[in-house]
Amino acid sequence: MISEKMVNALNEQINKEIYSAYLYMSMSAYSTFIGLKGFANWFMVQYQEEMTHAMKIYDYVNDQGTQVKLMAISQPPTDFESPLDMFEKTLDHEKFVTKSINGLVDLAIEEKDHATNIFLQWFVTEQIEEEGNDNDIIAKLKLVGSEGNGLFILDKELAQRVFTPPAQTTE
Ligand code: FEO
């Protein structure tokens, strides 16, 4: 049996995941505007991933026989100093999400809510991968700098990213 407190916290997490999608969509738009189509592709794939994260929680809340309650989505930043600035902000945001997921796990443990705890483990693992990806790209950006050939090559690399829907974990 899932508590009202847990459902409220999961509804807040849906909002955070949709905000994440919105943030990365904004970064994709900015990347397109400054001529970095590969970066734009990477962030648009990230946007899609974040929407699947939101929908995983959405489905879980429904499966528990409880109500999804959507909230207002904050406006994301629209301008960035450089590609490095975008990825540093991405990493900062993912650290915030990781903390939020950890808080949900703490609550599930506190409430002896084993089902929600198990459900959340997928997100714990996913956050390791997300932060890892960001760290990797930040390291490359620091190597190549914010302009010239290196950035052009990195843009081509990021153009290769393809969205792969995550496997179902709730059924
Ligand atoms: Fe849904 Fe990027 O964490």
UniProtKB/TrEMBL annotation:
<dbReference type="InterPro" id="IPR012347">
    <property type="entry name" value="Ferritin-like"/>
</dbReference>
<feature type="transmembrane region" description="Helical">
    <location>
        <begin position="21"/>
        <end position="44"/>
    </location>
</feature>
<protein>
    <submittedName>
        <fullName>Ferritin</fullName>
    </submittedName>
</protein>
<dbReference type="InterPro" id="IPR009040">
    <property type="entry name" value="Ferritin-like_diiron"/>
</dbReference>
<dbReference type="GO" id="GO:0006826">
    <property type="term" value="P:iron ion transport"/>
</dbReference>
<dbReference type="InterPro" id="IPR008331">
    <property type="entry name" value="Ferritin_DPS_dom"/>
</dbReference>
<dbReference type="GO" id="GO:0042802">
    <property type="term" value="F:identical protein binding"/>
</dbReference>
<dbReference type="GO" id="GO:0006879">
    <property type="term" value="P:intracellular iron ion homeostasis"/>
</dbReference>
<keyword id="KW-0560">Oxidoreductase</keyword>
<dbReference type="GO" id="GO:0004322">
    <property type="term" value="F:ferroxidase activity"/>
</dbReference>
<dbReference type="GO" id="GO:0008198">
    <property type="term" value="F:ferrous iron binding"/>
</dbReference>
<dbReference type="InterPro" id="IPR041719">
    <property type="entry name" value="Ferritin_prok"/>
</dbReference>
<feature type="domain" description="Ferritin-like diiron">
    <location>
        <begin position="1"/>
        <end position="145"/>
    </location>
</feature>
<dbReference type="Pfam" id="PF00210">
    <property type="entry name" value="Ferritin"/>
</dbReference>
<keyword id="KW-0812">Transmembrane</keyword>
<keyword id="KW-1133">Transmembrane helix</keyword>
<keyword id="KW-0479">Metal-binding</keyword>
<keyword id="KW-0409">Iron storage</keyword>
<dbReference type="GO" id="GO:0008199">
    <property type="term" value="F:ferric iron binding"/>
</dbReference>
<keyword id="KW-0472">Membrane</keyword>
<dbReference type="InterPro" id="IPR001519">
    <property type="entry name" value="Ferritin"/>
</dbReference>
<dbReference type="GO" id="GO:0005829">
    <property type="term" value="C:cytosol"/>
</dbReference>
<dbReference type="InterPro" id="IPR009078">
    <property type="entry name" value="Ferritin-like_SF"/>
</dbReference>
<keyword id="KW-0408">Iron</keyword>
